[in-house]
């Protein structure tokens, strides 16, 4: 009986922790939408969180925010695709206006802060955030990383 009680308490604590992480994620998304999305728009990206695209005459630049399923951090995936869109191996045509970084083969995309698909990139952590200012600092790190990435010519 004791082990059942322990398991029940453990499960309740796990549920409580997941609810907290879920609220942290919501708070982080709110700040990203307020702070980072306007920056992306200033760089001619369109779309809605978490998927953005910049249509150019010869290519589409793609950005997707991907959160750690265990909470507390996220990465940003970057990809480029043909301006004509993409056709899946089963024949579905994905238009340029609907493409996301996840539509591009994993070997042809990379994470913000890396130079190839074989590097991990930056995991932006908000796990210890306790105030709005903490979330804003993470958003500022994202913007600074985008600016550094562009200035190094890794992504145009």
Keywords:
disordered N terminus; six-stranded antiparallel β-sheet; 8 strands; about 160 residues; alpha+beta
Task: Please provide a written account of the structure.
This protein is α+β, with helices and mostly antiparallel strands and 156 residues long. The chain has one domain. Helix content is 39%, strand content 23%. The chain contains two helices and eight strands, in the order H-E-E-E-E-E-E-E-E-H. The chain has helices spanning 2-42, 132-151, and strands spanning 46-48, 51-55, 59-67, 73-82, 86-87, 93-94, 109-111, 124-125. The strands form two sheets. Strands 1, 2, 3, 4, 7 and 8 form a six-stranded antiparallel β-sheet that branches. A two-stranded antiparallel sheet has the order 5-6. Helix 1 packs across helix 2. Residues 2-13 have low confidence and may be disordered.
């Amino acid at each position: 009986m004791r082990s059942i009680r322990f398991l029940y308490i453990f499960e309740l604590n796990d549920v409580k922790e997941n609810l907290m992480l879920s609220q942290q994620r919501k708070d982080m998304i709110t700040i990203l939408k307020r702070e980072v999305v306007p920056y992306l728009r200033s760089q001619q990206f369109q779309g809605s969180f978490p998927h953005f695209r910049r249509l150019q005459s010869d290519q589409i630049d793609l950005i997707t925010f991907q959160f750690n399923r265990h909470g507390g951090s996220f990465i940003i995936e970057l990809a480029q695709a043909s301006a004509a869109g993409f056709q899946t191996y089963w024949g579905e045509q994905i238009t340029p206006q609907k493409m996301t970084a996840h539509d591009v083969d994993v070997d042809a995309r990379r994470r913000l802060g890396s130079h190839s698909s074989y590097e991990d990139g930056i995991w932006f952590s908000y796990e210890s955030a306790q105030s709005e200012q903490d979330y804003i600092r993470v958003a500022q790190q994202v913007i600074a990383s985008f600016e550094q990435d562009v200035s190094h010519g890794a992504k145009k």
